[in-house]
Design goal:
The chain is of the alpha+beta class and 172 residues long. It is built from seven helices and five strands, in the order H-H-H-H-E-H-H-E-E-E-E-H. Bound molecules: FE2/S2 (inorganic) cluster.
Length: 172
């Protein structure tokens, strides 16, 4: 695993915020790694643990506890569909199934996907061409305009099945 100079500088800067306990830099470092590499590999867990002078289990338990950390690579464009109550009532499960169909991600028709090994700590399903990945997430803080989703950092509200082709076509 190559750590580019720019990332090294960001890591050192993050650690400098926690002069009393380097352990407190664990979450910031995990975010930096996921931002750069797209996911948290086994190698990354070992690297961070060594850097912070911790046992690898201290990092692994964070990665498996917080669902926003991915343990496998996402697709080129990552879709997050809100699954919390308001969006669920507004049809989020069907929307996710429609998105799976449109992107080629195997889906059971009930919001479950089988393109990867989804589950806690590893919730991402990826399309066969690697272009899209999808996961269900908790509330995206726009409960009155469901169903809500994000593609990469872009936010979409009240998304209908009819909009899906146009939506996805914006991501090459
Ligand atoms: S329930 Fe979906 S954004 Fe809050």
């Amino acid at each position: 695993m190559q750590i580019p100079t720019e990332l090294t500088a960001q890591i050192d800067e993050a650690i400098s915020h926690y002069p009393v306990s380097k352990r407190s830099a664990s979450l910031p470092l995990l975010h930096l790694f996921q931002e750069h590499f797209g996911y948290i590999s086994e190698e990354a867990i070992l690297w961070i643990a060594e850097k912070l002078e911790l046992q690898p289990i201290a990092i692994l338990e964070l990665v498996t506890f917080y669902p926003m950390f991915r343990r496998t690579p996402p697709g080129k464009h990552h879709i997050r569909v809100c699954k919390t109550l308001s969006c669920a009532l507004a049809g989020a499960e069907q929307l996710k199934a429609d998105l799976c169909k449109a992107t080629g991600i195997p889906c059971d028709g009930h919001g479950g996907c089988h393109g990867g090994t989804p589950g806690h700590g590893d919730p991402v399903a990826v399309s066969p061409d690697g272009k899209f990945s999808i996961e269900s997430v908790e509330c995206l803080a726009s409960c009155g305009t469901g169903p809500v989703l994000m593609i990469n950092d872009d936010f979409y509200e009240a998304v209908s099945a009819e909009e899906i082709p146009n939506l996805l076509s914006q991501y090459k």
